[in-house]
Amino acid sequence: MRLITGSADQTVKLWNVQTGAQLYTFNFGSPARSVDFSVGDKLAVITTDPFMELTSAIHVKRIARDPTEQTEESELVIKGPQGRINRAVWGPLNRTIVSAGEDAVIRIWDSETGKLLREADKESGHKKTITSLTKSADGSHFLTGSLDKSAKLWDTRSLTLIKTYVTERPVNAVAMSPLLDHVVLGGGQDASAVTTTDHRAGKFEAKFFDKILQEEIGGVKGHFGPINALAFNPDGKSFSSGGEDGYVRLHHFDPDYFNIKI
Amino acid sequence: MAAEVMLMNEIEATAAEMGIDMNIDFSSIQLPPGENCGIIADDDDVYHDDQLEFDSGFGNVIVVDNLPVVPREKFEKLEGVIRKIYSQIGVIKEDGLWMPVDPETKKTLGYCFIEYNTPQEAELAKEKTHGYKLDRAHIFAVNMFDDFDKYMKVPDEWAPPEIKPYTPGENLQKWLADEKARDQFVIRAGTDTEVLWNDARQSKTEPVYKRTFWTESFVQWSPMGTYLATVHRQGAAVWGGANTFNRLMRYAHPQVKLIDFSPGEKFLVTYSSHEPSNPRDANRVVINIFDVRTGKVMRDFKGSADEFAVGGAGGVAGNSWPVFRWGGGKEDKYFAKLGKNMISVYETETFSLIDKKSLKVENVVDFSWSPTDPIIALFVPELGGGNQPARVSLVQMPGKEELRQKNLFSISDCKMYWQSNGDYLAVKADRYTKTKKSTYTGFELFRIKERDIPIEVLELDNKNDKIIAFAWEPKGHRFAVIHGDNPRPDVSFYSMRSTHNLGRVAKLTTLKGKQANALFWSPGGRFIVLAGLKGFNGQLEFFNVDELETMATAEHFMATDVEWDPTGRYVATSVTSVHEMENGFNIWSFNGRLLYRILKDHFFQFLWRPRPPSFLTPEKEEEIARNLKKYSKKYEAEDQDVSMLLSEQDREKRRMLKEEWEKWVSEWRRAQEEEKLERQKLRDGEASDEEEEYEAKEVEVEEVLDVSEEVLSFEE
Lengths: 262, 716
Description:
The structure holds two protein chains of two kinds.
Chain A: E1 2-6, E2 11-16, E3 22-27, E4 32-37, E5 43-48, E6 57-62, E7 74-79, E8 85-90, E9 96-101, E10 107-110, E11 116-119, E12 130-135, E13 141-146, E14 150-155, E15 161-166, E16 171-176, E17 182-187, E18 204-210, E19 216-223, E20 227-232, E21 238-243, E22 248-252
Antiparallel strand pairs in A: 1-2, 2-3, 4-5, 5-6, 6-7, 8-9, 9-10, 10-11, 12-13, 13-14, 14-15, 16-17, 17-18, 18-19, 20-21, 21-22
Chain B: H1 8-18, H2 48-54, E1 61-65, H3 75-87, E2 92-98, E3 112-116, H4 119-129, E4 133-135, E5 138-139, E6 141-144, H5 145-152, E7 183-189, E8 192-199, E9 204-212, E10 219-221, E11 228-232, E12 235-240, E13 246-252, E14 258-261, E15 267-274, E16 284-291, E17 297-304, E18 324-327, E19 334-339, E20 342-347, E21 352-353, E22 359-360, E23 366-369, E24 375-380, E25 390-396, E26 401-408, E27 411-418, E28 424-432, E29 439-447, E30 455-459, E31 467-472, E32 478-483, E33 490-495, E34 506-511, E35 518-521, E36 527-532, E37 539-544, E38 549-555, E39 561-564, E40 570-575, E41 584-589, E42 594-599, E43 603-608, H6 618-626, H7 628-682, H8 689-692
Antiparallel strand pairs in B: 1-3, 1-6, 2-3, 4-5, 7-8, 7-43, 8-9, 10-11, 11-12, 12-13, 14-15, 15-16, 16-17, 18-19, 19-20, 20-21, 20-22, 23-24, 24-25, 25-26, 27-28, 28-29, 29-30, 31-32, 32-33, 33-34, 35-36, 36-37, 37-38, 39-40, 40-41, 41-42
């Protein structure tokens, strides 16, 4: 089983999960921001940050079955969006690539030609940097989180806006439950922008919303810094959150969680 | 952060397609003329005609007439005299003094033109020197150059003014007749100003009117809520109407900074301050008093900032607004200003000083009007190192009779607080201790409506406690004080009508160790919010003063302002843009239950729309309070209906959302099925779809609760 990681050290590495061995290193001219395997794991999409004269870019690499046959070549390089591209993922059947980033516009690209197929509507789309993006288990829809204090749910094939979830804080991370119709948003103000000491330590929450009704169900407190990462266990019975405070918290749901009715 | 990003290559490509040359020589570009480059701003059309009057270009020029006619030899001397006089008032522009000469007689024509750098200086010069006696035969006649133009245009024939047909005005009080008895408020956030209904039943707001760039700085309601005033570069304007906000009148006052309405809404006072041409001089102040309905200037005041400064014990440090304080209740009869050793009281019949002269009070530093009667309370500090004690006096207008007076000894500072009905006046007096090293505080309580105005002295249980806040109960007989030196001060309540002895003030209770630094009584009295703003970061305690018990404690993190609605049913707390985060407002019920909250970035103002005083007599109000149960039945029924309707609407909305979602889900399932084969191919034949999908199913589980064994005897 393979793992792919991207880093600010301007490389992307392939690993063997069972042994922990490094299998291959891709080199780039700027920090690598996001990585995603295609359906079937034969391709990977990688985004790189703008750096000096280099603009941000989306790279598609072929992943060889046998790591000794792996090459550095890119199948495709897409350029265009301004600012960082925070996330790029594969669409259904690997025919498309969905990207989102600092310019707040979600784009769908043809994964073979690199042509821009669709752009999210400016009026209804995000108004500030899109920080995070996560796909549904079957890839039919995806959730984006933005510094404009909202998260939005989109249809992957048509890029239609389906739902919007509004919070009080900028959103840094989003996650969708694989089991129930819940979405989770995590965020908080950047440390540099806070001017008063919040005496309410431990009050940064991961907020749960009903996916369909767009209403807040509740929140899980505990982090005392902004939340930067969220992930559900694939069995849907627990989730983890990582924060600016340097902690990763694992949460296992009570039986009551599965009975929540608004 | 705007998300508008254009790619340079996209722009270049488009330009090339259109045949536009992207290389521009910027120095060859000429901007359209005018300060606004020909682009009409949102409110430019509002003041367009005014603008024309101001731009003649000769606004800085005055004409001085009745000068002596002198021959050539005396030119320089006369010019020198004139220059000397007029340079004192402002800086004469280079080559700004011109004395025309008659070409035939070679003597001066008897007048000259003087040009300053600003119209303000020119106007000041005109005022100061018009009528100046150079000598017995030559008295300066000074006019603004522009005025000549104006007077020349007056037609020789008098034409009677046009009589316009009568158009009935809108009912400006219509908002008071709202069926649901809601109140309005105005908020300003970012560039938007909005007026909204507070619909507490539905826990939300309902819009009334919204406008971007409605005002250039702030908005203010008139005291009885009839008008909303906006402030612009060229002056102020008021808006109102039956169902929406139309501009009813505007008031020209360039660079206006502050405004103030008279309590009866008859007059509007506007203020501006201008930099002097000589930086060592004080600012020039211009104050206009307009009739609100007609827009006519009733009176203007111009002078140096020194004349309009309000001196406190700390000395004259600039202006304190409002400079003119209104007195005599809702009839707007009098307004008064503090001056050096005097209080100038004007009446609004003629807009001149009562008896044509100010009230002379040596060394007066502060005064305040009774909210209801034409009585002024004034304070004169100690003089001459203890020879003349400080005193507080009550003076009746217009007669200027002194009704009551009290000498106060060893006073370091003093503040006056009137009760809302004018029944009581509290004077907080800080006194030096015998060693003069520290101060302690006491209150002189005047019972205004009683015969001879008795005065009572009140000291706190701990005399040395610092007073942090003081507030009278509106329409009531009680007051609250926050006092103490601890990080958590105490709050004490007193009544002027104690149960035992009607004539004496008595303490009701002291709440110890509260996180409070501000007091907000309900406008009808009885309830109070003890607020901890600033350092306490928004602590709120809703307290019932009748029962002397706390109704609720709550928090609005980082709240900066607290305001009761005019009916005393709701409290609004807000966080303004002083803070970067958490901007917005909360609406609470009078007993501390949070009804709803709205977040808005760059939040500047929240103001409830005031209501005019009730027409009901106090007796009628008491009758209604007694029979409240009868009236409330009807409203309770209405509330029930509304809440049922809301749940119905809610259920309907949810049903629709779920239906819509089902459509998407079935669409996705269909696409997934169609693509199943393709996916398998990508995975090299692995049919791993099932592995990925999780489903939540409700399952009945049998649980063994208990196992018990019972041995039965088996009888043969």
